[in-house]
Structure formats: structure tokens, C-alpha cells
Amino acid sequence: MRTVYMDHSATTPVRPEVVEAMLPYFTEQFGNASSVHHLGQRARAAVDEARDIVAAHLNARPEEIVFTSGGTESDNHAIRGVAAAGRGRHVITSAVEHHAVLNTCKALEKEGFEVTVLPVDENGLVDPQELRGALRPGTVLVSIMMANNEVGTIQPIRELAEVTAESGAVFHTDAVQAAGKMPVDVEELGVDLLSLSAHKFYGPKGVGVLYIRAGTRIRPMQVGGHHEHGRRAGTENVPGIVGMARALELACAEMDEEAQRLKRLREHLQKGLTGRLEDVQLNGHPEQRLPHLLNLTFAYVEGESMLLSLDAVGVCVSTGSACTSGTLEPSHVLTAMGVRPELAHGSLRFSLGRMNTEDDVEYVLEKFPPIVRRLREMSPTTREASA
Amino acid sequence: MPATAKTVAVAMSGGVDSAAAAALLVERGEFEVVGVSMHLPSPAGQADRSSTPCCSPTTIGDARRVADLLGIRFYALDQREAFRRAVIADFVESYAGGRTPNPCARCNERVKFGTLLHRVRTFGADMIATGHYVRKARGERGGWTLRTAPSDDDQSYFLYGLSQEQLAAALFPVGGMEKSKVRAVARRHDLPVHDKPGSQDLCFLGETPYTELLREQHPDMLRPGPIVHVTGAVLGEHSGLPAYTVGQRRGLGIAHPEPLYVVEVRPEDNTVVVGERRHLRRETITVGKLNWIMPDGPPSAPLRASVKIRYNHPGAPAAILPDGNGGGRVVFDEAQEAPCPGQSAVFYDDGVVLGGGTIEEEQSRP
Fold first, then answer.
1. Which ipTM was obtained for this model?
2. Is A246 helix (H, G, I), strand (E, B) or coil?
């Protein structure tokens, strides 16, 4: 059976060039980057070079790059690290964050911190004025994602960071979905902390970055040896780090062209589906959104039923983020955007990527509308609506 | 496999029976086979898995591994809400009413062949297969009949509540086999569950005592009260009604010249009534919520059947007198010991399940 993978926001395959770059560091160049001998030195050189590459692509300095095990660790480190080092007990985040951020803030709340969760508008945007109103003398951290993983809405990070900077609080952004899809320039954005995850841009799983602007008040969260300048203990994942740097390099080199191509594919898919089916609604900002992501609500049908029916014809999509799939709870992102729960249940996320072609889109346009029509015939809500 | 093959969803619990059922269907090659597991509420008092849906319970993990080895698609479907509403609520309510529930029967008719069947239909499955030890056969006058399994593991006691429509969509691939043969099927496919012991626990309780769940859901149900002899004499104190079931002999903590049994559990005055063995005997029971599987529908006249009043009851000859209102009476040829309100009375005719109902509280006492 043909497989059409349209779930690139969940994860991506590792590019062959990336695999090739990583391979020597599993076998011949297996050294520990902390070892003194020549094998250790080679590993150290590889990690340093990767750090330079990552820093250059984020417009950061190499010493501001901390390698982690991925997006969740980076988010945890950013939030908990600042909370532990800060002089206040107040943290601000938004209602549409990834659970890595939301649940870390919730955990802080249990430990006595106050957490303000900023609302979003119907397009999923946080209002900088709203943030201004929430900031107060005890605010130590603001964490707002760069681009949303479920609907793709891109936040006005520069403005949000500026507002935060005026108050003296630290600004963190989870850029896991944005990296490789749009420019991520820490100077341009004015952020203090920024999280990345390699497997979202055709790098390996289990490796990520936390950018820490020089001078930011933050404590290490994982303690041990003096790795990563004492900010994140643990033997460096040398092949992973090398692979991530190569993947980021490649993604950035191809970004403009690939973003245009994905946008065209997405528009084709969106127009094709809305043209063939009634009662289809776009979730997320109509323009200010990631080029590859399309989140649609198909009224009267369950997202899960659509997902599993698509899987039967080889099309891989998701109903929300990969971490909340498998439950029937409506998406917190859509709920925060004011989408009614019964409609939130009928949403589906298509996230396109490098391997997708026009032909893939045509395949989905051929297979998917009959599935929705069949499900609508079975659906009790359709009958109620037309009765 | 024919291009128009039907799609069968196998309800996989992670145990050997449903794993073998899936393997047998794959071997037959007549169907497109998909594995599904029900994501159910966590046992009471244990960490709720709902907050960590990425970490499935190990039983779902076992089912997924089996599906992977068999090369079939597999999905864990969230049935927590449906299960809470259909099974756990009834479980709690039964105990609150002094009855001993039959949650497996309830789950089969409302969840497995109810909401789960509906869900798998939405993604194109036509039927549900399970690892139950029962058989399904064409009825002589059309429709389907449910038959007992030839082995000692017969589970028809938990499936009498299915409708003709549900039965039409059911497949029981291991129903005609001995357990040892079923294990052999699993071994033949190198399925890691082939030597997994059968579970005696209720799936939603795990190793948690059911009284814990009741305490959580309905705290005032576990109030101490009197233990009274059928003659009216107060003999002691009980620790809360749900710990007592009609017919129970152990755990009463009362010294008495003759062995004592629970004869009645009475929520109206929070009383456990005990008596001697002879007080357990009943010639007649009333039953409610009757379901008739026979293709020709509910009988209008009295009929004779062998009636099982609990899972391990051998069945006893009786006359069934439907009241035309979804209930009726069962008159045994010989009085039976300890029919327990809340348990099912299931009617058989020579290995064919005619139907059954729920045993109700007695209207009049001996």
C-alpha cells in the first residue's frame, strides 16, 4: 500500500546526508568528548564544530548554545532554570503552548509559583498589550511559543520579547515547530532563551538545543560533570549533535525555496478539500502561519475516525499534537481559540514535508472526501443538524 | 485476500485468547484484520493514565506487540468515558442497591459490542472479533444463534445480552477450541503472550480491591451496620454492605452452632441478613432487563430451559414465565441455592443461549 506521510509536525525522517554525517561517530569516532586522548579530542572537535554551525544559524554565539535531549528538556530547563534563579515568584505563559511548557508551569504552580496563562484570539494569537498588563515586578519569566504545533499560528515574538524586556523578566520561546520552516534569529527576535528539537527538521530524535543569551539568570537543571560549560551535565550525544547541526544547515539552506513549495502544496490541499466538502473550517491564522501546516475542522465527524480511515488508505495525519493523540479530549489549543468542543473533535492536522509531492496531495483529495461523506452519513450530529 | 474482503477489528486485551483470535483470522486470509485495544480507566487508587496517554498500560503494550508480530494495523481507542458511564457507574449503583453486579456482561453489550463496535465501523471495519469462548452459528430459521463453547472455559454467561444485530457483527475465532490449542496457536506465531496466565481480576480494578473503588465513588456506601439472623436476632456488625454477597459464608466473624450464610443484603436499613444453608434455597426468582437472542424474538408463552444463575453454576432445569414487560419469573424444578440479586440468569436450550436477564430482589420473603 502507498504511504503518504503528512505528519511532519510530529516528526520527520532523518535525511540521508544527516545519517551519513552521523555514522562515523557511532563507530570509529566513538570517543567521549571529555576524554583527553586523540579520540576524545576528535569528538570534542565535532561537537564544537556543530555548536558553531547551530550558533551561526540562530545568529547566536557558540557559548550560548546548550545541547539537550530535545524540545521537552529544553523547555523544562528554560522554565525551571529561570524560576530557580529568579527573584520573583510569577511566570507568564499562553493557553496554546505545548504541554512541555504548560505542564512545567503547572508543576511550578504546585511549588508555590503564580502562573498567568494568557488567552489567545480566534486565530491563536497572543496580544502584546495583554502581556504588558500581566507583567508585574515579581514576574521572572515569560514563555510563549514561536509557532504553534497544532494550528501553525506564528506569534509576534519580537513585540512580546520587547514588552517583556521593558519589565526586566526573561523571555523564552519554544521554537521547535518554527526552526527550519522560517528564519530563527535570536537577535532579530530579542529572546533570551529558545528551544529547538532536531527531529522536527530531518535530524535525529533525542537531541535538541537550548539557546541561552549571555548573562541570562538561569540555573542548571541536570547536575553532574562540567559538560556544556556546567549548564547541562551528561556525556554529549556526539552523533546526535553532529546530525542536528547538519540537518539545521541543510534546512536553512533550502528554507526559502522549500517553504514556497510547501505553501503551494498546502494551498492546493486546502482549496481542494474546502472545494469538495461542505462545512470545512480553517483553524489558525489565515496568513500568519507556518507554510507546511494545515489544520481543518470537518463539522459532524470525529477526528479520530477520519485519522484511522485515512490510515487505512496509507495517509498519515494527526488530530492534534502527537502527545495528546489517543485521547478523546478536545485540543486545548482549539478550545483556547474558542472553537466549540464538538467542532474541535472534528479537526485534523496535515503537516507537509520534503517528501510530499503534488501527486500526494491529489491522492489525499481523491481518497479523503469520500471518507468524510461516509462518516457524515453515519454521524448522529449530521442527522440532528439536518433535521 | 479478495479485494472486497471485509475488515474485522479484533478487540485485543493483551491476553492470549484475543492474540490467538487475531492470529487465526490472519491465517484464514479472508479478512483485512485490524487490532484494537480499549483504553480504559485506570484502576482506582492508581495513577490516572489519562494525563500520560503516551504511556499505555502494559496490556495495551502486549496487544500492540502481538499486532506488530502479526503484521496488522493496531489502534488503542479511548473508551474511558463510555466504560465509566456504562460499566463502572452500573457497578457502583448495583452495590449501592445491595446487588452483586456482572460487569463483564455489561461491558460486552454496552462497550465492546456497543461503543467500540460503533467506533471501528467509523473507520471501515464491518465486524468485531474477540477471544471469547463462545460460538456463533446460523439459526435454523434465519438470524444467528449464540452457542456455548465445548470447553470448560465457556463464557456465554457474559454474552447473553447481545442483540441479533450485535451478534451478526461478532466473530469468535477461538470459541470452538480448547485453551491448550489456543495457546498452541499463539506459540506457533511466536506471540510473547502464549504463556501469559489468565487474569481473574476485573480489568478496571487490577489488584485494587473493589471496595476501594466504591469508597472512592460512593464513600457513604461502606458504613457499618447490623448483621441480623433470619429470625430477627442481631448477631453482630458488618463493615459495609458491598463486602457481602448472597451465599457468602466466610468473613462474617460470628460464632454460631451452625454455619451461617449471607441470605440477603438490605440497603434500606443497611443490614446483612444471615441464616443457615436451607435459607438460601429458592424455587422461584424474578428476573428483569430480559434479553432474548433467539432470532424469532421474545417468546410469548412460557418455555423450558436450563438456567445458570452464576458463572460457575452448572445450570438447572426450569420454566421461564415472561411477564410480557421485559421481565419474568424463573421456576426451578428443584430449588437452587443462593441466587444473588444483580447477577445474571442465563437461559440455555441444549447449548444454545436463548437469552437471560438480571436477578432481582425478591418481592416476598420465605
1. 0.77
2. helix
